[in-house]
Amino acid sequence: MKKILFAASEGNPFIKTGGLADVVGALPKYLDSKKFDVRVILPKYLCIPETDRKKLSKVTEFYADMPRGKEYIGIYKAKEDEITYYFIDNEYYFAGDNPYHEIFEDVNKFAFYSRAVLAALPEMDFCPDIIHCHDWQTALIPVFLKEFYKNNPFYQNMRTIITIHNQKFQGRWRIDDIENCRDLPENCRYKAMEAYHETNFLKAGILYADQVTTVSETYAQEIQFPAGGEGLEGVMRQASDKLSGIVNGIDYQEYNPMTDTKLAVPFGLRNITQKKKNKEALQKELGLRQDHSVMLIGMVSRMTEQKGFDLVNYVMEEMLNTMNIQVAVLGTGENRFEESFRYFASKYPDQISATVGYSEERAHRIYGGVDAFLMPSQFEPCGLSQLISMRYGTVPIVRETGGLKDTVEAYNEIWQTGTGFSFANYDAKEMLMIIRYAYDVFQNHPKEWRAMMKRCMKADHSWQNSAKKYEKMYLKLA
């Protein structure tokens, strides 16, 4: 049996700020437990909800040599869905009301975390064959493993994988100001870790890891070119022989319209007409005009330019004034977008609802109650919202980039195929044109729309297929 350790900065159900937590919380459950002993290690943040903190039991504590001197490391653990979770404790680094703070704090914090994970393994009595690292926060684990532990028999057979969930975030800061990296050899600090005169955690992880993955096949190609590489396209081409794209899945237990207690009315393929009752309940909850004939579009997202909110902002009034459309938005982000959507909601109270904040319950009700889901992302490594929306019979409208291109098949009215609508260029007018097309099908071709809803629900975006690809990679690498 191969031993796999997932190392990440967040993971469901203990701490979540985005899609990374969903992946870390779901993928281990779908790996074959007869072949793999999969465990997860996370920081023990002070902001983990008290109900979840009570689940943790202390394993041990010890002190490890680090650049600042002897550092305390506590190890806690808990079991959730038959998966063992470990937690690294040190309140100097992991206090605060949010897992992430200013980047100058976080680079040092996650450098400590990466060191602590490796130092804790013998104390945990767990010697993984593979450490699967996620994003820049854990990217130094392959670096510290090869620089500090290459002659230690306990660590010699360990291999590392780093998965890039979003290449835009790289862990960059001034080279000499990161305390927990100061004892690395100069040829590492000023060469492998350096990019554009700064330390770059992600670059180092890519170069030092034995395997690099990202979260869709298209994104694996995009990050090798300037438009998607975020300055690391040369590094990605250098690492192309060990780079692959494996699309994310979603947890079909958590997102199941037939058993989802957050919905007003459960429904499935056999009683898909019940979805209308969820639409009616959502309109009532959000204070929108209750009208089955209106096309209700949802967005559950960070309100940022990356997610295409500048495009939506540009055409919102034209959409609302020229089509029988309503919009339900949930999320937080850049102040300019939060304020603009508050403005639209006050000007068109019957047509648009903007919830600035986040509610898991409301998110489920939006996925289950809207007719279409809009994701016009500038770039999207994988995206989970389009997968969740399809699971609930909600038709996605997306830009053809990254995982959106890989998971949404464009509607073909001649062959009656497809699971959504898509547009190619990052252009507001092009987006509006495809929304008008979707609106026409919704209003004038209800039979075809209902067939597309069913194709969405039949599409398999569970973790089963992706888990098999990870299993194959683990066995080959170990």
Name the features.
single chain, 478 residues, alpha/beta, Rossmann fold, 2 domains, 9-stranded mixed sheet, 6-stranded parallel sheet, 21% strand, globular
Structure at a glance:
The chain is α/β, with parallel strands linked by helices. 40% of the residues lie in helices and 21% in strands. It folds into two domains: 2-249 and 463-477, 3-Layer(aba) Sandwich (Rossmann fold), CATH 3.40.50; 272-458, Rossmann fold (3-Layer(aba) Sandwich).
Account of the 3D structure:
The protein folds into two domains: 2-249 and 463-477, Rossmann fold (3-Layer(aba) Sandwich); 272-458, 3-Layer(aba) Sandwich (Rossmann fold), CATH 3.40.50.2000. Helices cover 40% and strands 21% of the residues. It starts with a strand and ends with a helix. It is of the alpha/beta class and 478 residues long. The chain has 19 helices and 18 strands. The protein has helices at 19-30, 50-53, 91-94, 103-124, 140-148, 186-192, 201-208, 217-222, 226-229, 233-238, 275-286, 309-322, 335-347, 360-369, 385-391, 402-407, 428-444, 446-458, 463-477, and strands at residues 2-7, 36-43, 57-66, 69-80, 83-89, 130-134, 159-164, 172-173, 194-195, 198-200, 211-214, 243-245, 295-300, 325-331, 352-356, 372-375, 395-399, 421-423. The strands form three sheets. It has a nine-stranded mixed beta sheet with strand order 3-4-5-2-1-6-7-11-12, sandwiched between helices.
Shape: globular
In order across it, which strands form the biggest sheet?
3-4-5-2-1-6-7-11-12
Which structural class do the helices and strands define?
Answer: alpha/beta
The total number of structural domains is 2
Mean pLDDT score: 96
Number of extended strands: 18
**Would you state the CATH class of the largest domain?**
Alpha Beta
pLDDT < 50 stretches: none
Q: What percentage of the residues does DSSP assign to strands (E)?
A: 15-25%
Amino- and carboxy-terminal Cα gap = 11 Å
Per CATH, the architecture of the largest domain is 3-Layer(aba) Sandwich
User: What does the main sheet amount to?
Assistant: 9 strands, mixed
- Residues in helices, as a percent range: 25-40%
CA-based gyration radius:
23 Å
What is the helix tally? 19
